[in-house]
Design goal:
This protein has a single domain (3-183), classed as Peroxidase, domain 1, CATH 1.10.520. It is 59% helix and 0% strand. It has helices at residues 3-20, 25-36, 47-53, 67-83, 100-104, 114-124, 129-146, 154-166, 170-183. The chain is globular, with a radius of gyration of 16 Å.
Length: 194
């Protein structure tokens, strides 16, 4: 099985376990630890349960997180951010062509979308993985505040993060595919905001 599929299956399994524990204080504490670890170098509070649930073949062997680990951990941190305060699961699998750009397009509904478009462009034009993560975190916080009922495919997000930070040419692929979904116009001549 290729690495992306393992990342996807691993992310899906971890989200299912985390969501299944949401009604318990220990489960909510895990999500809080994930949220609190965002953007920090020290993520040790979240490591015990993350590495316990992560597919063994994706665990790194160096003093830095492997790209596979980053992809899953970042996706789970974003899941924890959006899941906060919600009882229904914010993770939902999407159609094959859909991606985070499809979800973020909801931010363009009504009013002036110029500021949101600038933020989106800053995110997809990020040069480094860390810069990408910072912009992505900001966009998802904005999404949480404006599209309260929205769901995201965190499995696909994890695989896309991996492509962005690991593949040669991955940045360009993600920039193109996310932009297509974010900016596309539906067949009625309206911007796509489903």
């Amino acid at each position: 099985m290729d690495t992306e599929k393992i990342i996807g299956k691993g992310t899906e399994a971890i989200i299912a376990r985390l969501y299944g524990q949401l009604e318990y204080s220990a489960g909510r504490a895990k999500l809080a630890k994930l949220r609190n670890s965002m953007g920090r170098n020290d993520q040790t509070e979240a490591y015990p349960f993350l590495f316990e649930m992560m597919p063994e073949e994706l665990l790194g062997h160096t003093k830095e997180l492997a790209d596979e680990e980053k992809a899953i951990i970042w996706s789970l941190q974003f899941y924890a951010l959006l899941q906060q305060g919600r009882s229904d699961c914010v993770h939902s699998r999407t159609e094959a062509h859909q991606n985070l750009g499809s979800s973020l397009a909801k931010l363009r509904v009504g009013g002036d979308s110029e500021a949101v478009d600038r933020r989106f462009n800053a995110m997809i034009l990020a040069d480094t993985a860390e810069e990408f993560q910072i912009h992505l975190r900001y966009m998802l916080r904005l999404y949480k505040s404006k599209a309260k009922a929205g769901k995201i495919d965190f499995v696909k997000l994890a695989m896309d993060i991996y492509r962005f930070i690991h593949w040669e040419g991955g940045k360009e692929q993600i920039r193109l595919t996310w932009s297509r979904e974010y900016y596309k116009v539906n067949t009625k001549g309206e911007e796509n905001h489903d």
